[in-house]
Design brief:
Blueprint (H helix, E strand, L loop, with lengths): L1 E3 L2 E3 L7 E2 L5 E2 L2 H6 L6 H17 L4 E4 L9 H8 L5 E7 L24 H11 L11 E5 L6 H17 L3 E4 L6 H11 L7 E4 L7 H9 L3 E4 L10 H13 L6 E3 L6 E2 L6 H5 L7 H12 L4 H15 L2
Parallel strand pairs: 3-5, 4-12, 5-6, 6-7, 7-8, 8-9, 9-10, 10-11
Antiparallel strand pairs: 1-2
GO molecular function: hydrolase activity; zinc ion binding
Keywords: Hydrolase, Metal-binding
Pfam families: PTE (PF02126)
């Protein structure tokens, strides 16, 4: 069974899964203190419409890695999910490229006051008891490393690793292929005792360096080919060609697909994504990418492996 926003779902009934999609990416302090920048009713209605359109393409499940640092609000997501026939799997963890939030600065391992790692207790509670008193349980862990391994980033990685060891929940890591930080994340997690076969190295699709991608796979992890539509980082045709090359080499069983899209991302002014990144939305894979992959020689069996079988194994 897999925990979702609507409750437990048998793992073999997750169906077609996009493994890295956000419902919202927000700064909650800005939203709460400057409500004129956020129209709750409009945003919720828009999210329902976008997610219904995604479900109409045959997608059964999205995996939402929105955690602390990205504006997680599972109550809002639950209200939206009640209007959409779609499984939404939520995460616990912490998103930072540099230091930990001030809340954690003075207590915990290596700090002035020392003590146990409060992040571990928080993450484990989200997985075993539920998030914020909702009863909605996280089913996986999320952390991030961008350009380098800072002390704060390493502390989060270690906390995620410990929560994984205590609960068995799998891990997804935001990484930067240009800085090869997927390998750094793998080494930190491996040192902490994590089975790298339970890890997705996210945003691996931002590169055409198949030697790097094969090294990640050889180390045991899945690679997230999960930013389709973000053409500013890498055009769709190059992403397709990279997947086709790896699939042709027998590695479809180590890749998962997604867009890393959202209904609304407050990092960008309203309208900028639609204008500058018109393909960065939930249906780009089914409308454009899957036909292109077929044209590039990826078989139906391999597509099923990436969209159905690999997510099922990840959560098993």
């Amino acid at each position: 069974m897999v925990e979702t926003v609507r409750g437990q779902v048998p793992v073999d009934q997750l169906g077609t899964v996009l493994m890295h999609e956000h419902v919202f990416v927000l700064n909650e302090e800005i939203r709460r203190n400057y409500p004129e920048l956020w129209d709750e009713e409009e945003r919720v209605a828009d999210a329902i419409e976008r997610l219904r359109e995604l479900a109409s393409r045959g997608v059964d499940t999205i995996v939402d890695p929105t955690v602390i640092g990205l504006g997680r609000d599972v109550e809002r997501v639950a209200r939206i999910n009640a209007e959409v026939d779609l499984n939404i799997i939520t995460a616990t963890g912490l998103y930072t490229y540099d230091s930990v939030p001030f809340f954690f600065r003075l207590h915990g391992p290596g700090t002035v006051l020392g003590g146990d790692e409060v992040m571990v207790r928080m993450f484990v509670k989200d997985i075993t008891e539920g998030i914020a008193g909702t009863g909605i349980k996280a089913a996986f862990l999320k952390c991030a490393i961008e350009e380098e391994l800072t002390p704060g980033v390493e502390r989060v990685l270690n906390a995620v690793a410990e929560a994984h060891l205590q609960t068995g929940a799998p891990i997804t890591v935001h990484t930067s292929p240009g800085h090869r930080t997927g390998l750094v994340a793998q080494e930190v997690l491996r040192r902490s005792g994590v089975d790298l076969g339970r890890v997705v190295i996210g945003h691996s699709g931002d590169t055409t360096d198949t030697d790097y991608l094969r090294e990640l796979i050889d180390n045991g992890s899945y690679i997230g080919m999960d930013r389709f539509g973000l053409d500013a980082l890498l055009p769709t045709d190059e992403r397709v060609a990279t997947i086709a090359e790896l699939a042709g080499g027998g590695l479809a069983d180590r890749m998962v697909l997604a867009h890393d899209a959202s209904c609304h991302n407050s990092w960008f002014p309203t309208g900028v994504i639609e204008q500058a990144l018109p393909h960065w939305h939930y249906t780009h894979i089914h409308d454009v990418v899957l036909p292109a992959l077929r044209e590039a020689g990826v078989t139906e069996e391999q597509l099923t492996t990436m969209l159905v079988d690999n997510p099922r194994r990840y959560f098993s």
